[in-house]
Amino acid sequence: xxxxxxxxxxxxxxxxxxxTDAVGDxxxxxxxxxxxxxxxxxxxRTIDARGLVVAPGLIDLHxxxxxxxxxxxxxxxxxxxxxxxxxxxTVCAMPNTDPAIDNRAVVExxxxxxxxxxxxxxxxxxxxxxxxxxxxLAEMGELAAAGCIGFSDDGTYxxxxxxxxxxxxxxxxxxxxxxxxxxxxxxxxxxxxxxxxVATRLGLKGTPAAAxxxxxxxxxxxxxxxxxxxxxxxxSTAGAVDLVRTAKARGVPVxxxxxxxxxxxxxxxxxxRDTAPYDTSCRVNPPLRTDRDVEACIDGLRDGTIDAVATxxxxxxxxxxxxxxxxxxxxxxxxxxxxxxxxxLVHAGRISFAEALARLTCGPARALRLAERTGLTGLGTLxxxxxxDVVVIDPxxxxxxxxxxLASKGKNTPFDGWQLTGxxxxxxxxxxxTYNALEN
Amino acid sequence: xxxxxxxxxxRDQQEAANGTGMSTRPPQATAEPSPLxxxxxxxxxxxxxxxxxxxxxxETADAMREVLGREVPRLPTLRGTTIAxxxxxxxxxxxxxxxxxxxxxxxxxxxxxxxxxSVEKGESLIDTVRTxxxxxxxxxxxxxxxxxxxxxxxxxxDAAVLNGGDGWHAHPTQALLDLFTIQRRLGNVRxxxxxxxxxxxxxxxxxxxLWGLSAAGAEIVVCxxxxxxxxxxxxxxxxxxxxxxxxxxxxxxxxxxxxxxxxVMTLRLQKERMQSGxxxxxxxxxxxxxxxxxxxxxxKPDALVMHPGPMNEGVEIxxxxxxxxxxxxxxxxxxxxxxxxxxxxxIRGGKRxx
Lengths: 440, 354
Description:
The complex is a heterodimer.
Chain A (H helix, E strand, L loop, with lengths): L5 E10 L4 E10 L2 E2 L11 E4 L4 E4 L1 E6 L12 H10 L2 E6 L10 H14 L3 E4 L15 H6 L5 E2 L8 H14 L3 E3 L4 H4 L4 E2 L2 H6 L3 E2 L1 H18 L3 E3 L5 H12 L4 E5 L32 H13 L4 E2 L8 H4 L16 H10 L5 H6 L3 H6 L2 H5 L15 E11 L18 E11 L2 E5 L4
Parallel strand pairs in A: 1-4, 1-5, 6-7, 7-8, 9-10, 10-13, 11-12, 13-14, 14-15
Antiparallel strand pairs in A: 1-2, 2-3, 5-16, 16-17, 17-18
Chain B lengths: L2 H16 L32 H18 L13 E6 L5 H12 L3 E6 L11 H10 L4 E6 L4 H8 L3 E7 L5 H15 L6 E5 L6 H12 L3 E5 L25 E3 L2 H5 L4 E4 L5 H4 L6 H8 L3 H4 L7 E3 L12 H4 L6 H19 L7
Helix pairs in contact in B: 2-6, 2-13, 3-13, 4-5, 6-7, 6-13
């Protein structure tokens, strides 16, 4: 079904990918951004964006849609509805489903389901190893042929260094990145939060920053050895930011992402608010770290060491979190709070509005070369001919996070009750309006 | 209930009604109306206890010890109250002493273990505690292998929760009985140098003692191999102004640690610490950290030796020390009943059942 032409008028168009920042109209025809000044034959549907920001639709490199296998936590339909609410028009689905995305059949199932029900473009990440078990490579060539945009065993580290080397060699030949959940499980040794004074106080087992840093260091060396592209997922420590920064300087093919929560919260959040310590909504992998780590992640985001903000959207059912901290499922629902959390950094004067948008649009697109891999020229920008993926934002609107109001099935957020500034009002994916708060 | 107990109960009630200071009457336990500034419903840890609250517990425990010294150690204070001990881990002294404490105060006490209960069928903690509440439990005494479990219970059930030990986190009644023991033996906790020796990392007893001793004004030294000292303890990090841990000195050398000590508290060393590579061998551990009669001489001459039990004699403590006159280990166990009586009494508002 071809979307009707859509005219977004009078907004401040900020497109970091093309260096645009100007008030004007944006016309979308046939699922593409029209050339400036183009006219439609018939009257276009109009969205009045005066006083609002018009930007490219956001791209999430790290989304857990949970389907197939854990539909009680999230589905492709509910997860992409959450994406649309959050301003995302493209999400990269992680392969830790059940069964894992380690063969063509599962890739095609997700693509087919997404085509029927999704409110956002779903790109599929294939597993590095069969069943994500870390023993034997998945059939990477076949996964690439089925349309996977990269490989990841997200949720687990490929402990076998030799196998990781071969994965990078294969990925290089296929022209695809390896997305790395970098945490050495031997050093982490079952830790459930950051190792530091809070873990000591609460009597919880900690995971030291070195568990991440040792893993990142190994994989940067393997990327240097093989020439394979390594993408470090959810960087959380100051040391890991430094490792990526120096590796980039010496030409290692590396990109990196950070989550909104690692830019916002520290391990002290686990102490909870009021009289509720052991806040399971703060149980997440990698764990929330120290102030120093948060600052280093923000610095890395600003100087380009970190290419993208990725949500690591990890929806869970209420019962998965309503239990002892050690037993709580790690992760938090992230798509609908991501933009506003990144805008906190803008409002605090830490990064510019354009930088914030860049790390959510052209940054992730370039990091994983999504335009080339999908054949969608201009993906992540508003260049003429780019996919008609647009988000309309009120950067000053104050809203309160209410878990029950989230579109995601996962209500697990540590930001419950937070007042955030900056809200998505309209999301357009491939020319179709997927979310519109202006009509409510 | 036998006739003898009933007689004693009646006598106690009468004393309380008269408000007369008979020699058998515990001074705090029966003073009515209770003037105690006690507002706490749950006892989950000592990390937020004020020095005054600790003093109230110890004073009340003193009175309870007197009750326990009677021919028939019974008070009717908790008659009509139901206590459940819900233990997800093995325990001898904590469970038994809570049970005796509850019975000495006239409560009905039921014991629930994870084995042989619905827990084995996969029932969640919240459902289990709600079930216990629904059958009429007023006070829940919990032991659990996961740190923080009693907090979860306290948030989801309308009953008072007493933490009988959670994971590595807290064992507040043990720490209170330790404070009580120190106070009884040495007269005062304030200003005492207390050395805690051993596996601090995995010890809920140590964690609660750090808070309790710190609130009571003791000087605290922790001593053990570096692998068994938790992150951040004894460290000052200005990059983290929010940090909140008790002030302690960390020392890896036993001789240095024991110098001038008034109290030496040694902890159980679990054998699995060796398997997980945290210590090279039990043999080496005992060579470095076992409290022997010879090493005890490094402390003050009459230093009090304590152990929360169960002991590994010959690993963290030599048998001749454990059973010496300097040992307060058996007294700790006895004091445990009095301290738990005091807490049960206090959280029921210091009021008598009608």
